[in-house]
TrEMBL record, chain A:
Residue ranges of DNA binding: 29-48
GO molecular function (one): DNA binding
Entry-linked Gene3D superfamilies: Tetracycline Repressor, domain 2
Domain of life: Bacteria
Organism: Flavobacterium aquariorum
Protein name (record): TetR/AcrR family transcriptional regulator
UniProt keywords, alphabetically: DNA-binding
From TrEMBL, chain B:
Protein name as annotated: Uncharacterized protein
Superkingdom of source: Bacteria
Length: 196, 75
């Protein structure tokens, strides 16, 4: 009886993420993935029906990992400032720990796979974040604004700093590391912009 | 994943075109011993993947050979 080798499966997933980031969706293929992961093509086809199936499953998995990390120690009933700080911490930790997964997620969420992946992995997360914002507005801890405006002000600065951090340099090309002081300074300014 | 891997059989075939695929759809869909099947025509080996509790690799190969398609166990 053949047994499912979960260790091998993990290697395949990680390799697929690496290859997707490096080669893009078009350049990515099952044969090459099998070769680079050290498994036979047949094994790959036992796990996945085709390239599309594999990409969807990888995307959904990354989305679920992201979701699990985002809700750690977070509740939609938290005071707004504490909750947003927790979101910053969780997002920064995930982005720094898994830069390849984040890059792959970015790639897939700008592709035709977007809807399928988002729908399957982030539905609960959207509800939780929606509740968090609604509670904050009800408690008058947050100015009422369209969610797109909220998102870009609340997280835009963080993701820009994280990009500088991952690249090791800022827009001017000077070396950059994201410290707690820098994060706190940016966070306080964001809070100033969002609270009544 | 949803299926027991013991029930999954994978083959290299020459089912290359949409026309080829149409020819096998009826045969495979009609077979009650096949729970699920897919073919990856983007792949060079046109990999046919069959989920079945009962059919053997040889039986699938014979089924496809009868339709004048090449079919071999994918290594």
């Amino acid at each position: 009886m053949r047994t499912r080798d979960t260790h091998k499966e993990e290697i395949v997933k990680q390799k697929a993420i690496e290859m997707l980031v490096k080669l893009g969706i078009e350049g990515f293929g099952m044969n090459r993935l099998a070769k680079e992961s050290g498994v036979s093509v047949a094994t790959l086809y036992i796990y996945y029906t085709d390239k599309e199936d594999l990409i969807k499953k990888i995307g959904i998995q990354i989305g679920q990992d992201f979701f699990n990390e985002m809700v750690k120690d977070f509740s939609p009933t938290m005071p707004f400032k504490d909750g947003l700080r927790k979101q910053w911490e969780n997002r920064a930790r995930f982005t720094i720990k898994y830069p390849l997964n984040v890059a792959c997620w970015e790639l897939l969420s700008h592709s035709s796979y977007r809807d399928c992946i988002l729908e399957k992995s982030l539905l609960d997360f959207k509800t939780i974040m929606g509740d968090f914002l609604k509670n904050a507005i009800d408690k008058k801890e947050l100015v009422c604004m369209p969610k797109e405006v909220f998102w870009s002000i609340a997280y835009g600065p963080l993701y820009t700093l994280l990009r500088f951090h991952n690249e090791g340099k800022s827009m001017a090309g000077t070396p950059f590391t994201l410290t707690k002081e820098v994060t706190d300074e940016a966070f306080e300014l964001v809070i100033k912009a969002l609270t009544p | 994943m949803e299926n027991q891997i013991d029930n999954i059989l994978v083959f290299a075939t020459n089912i290359k075109t949409e026309n080829d695929k149409q020819k096998i759809i009826e045969i495979l869909d009609a077979n009650s011993e096949i729970h699920q099947w897919t073919i990856d025509q983007e792949d060079i080996d046109c990999v046919l993947r069959i989920v079945s509790d009962t059919l053997s690799e040889e039986q699938i190969i014979e089924l496809l050979n009868d339709q004048n398609f090449k079919c071999s166990i994918l290594e």
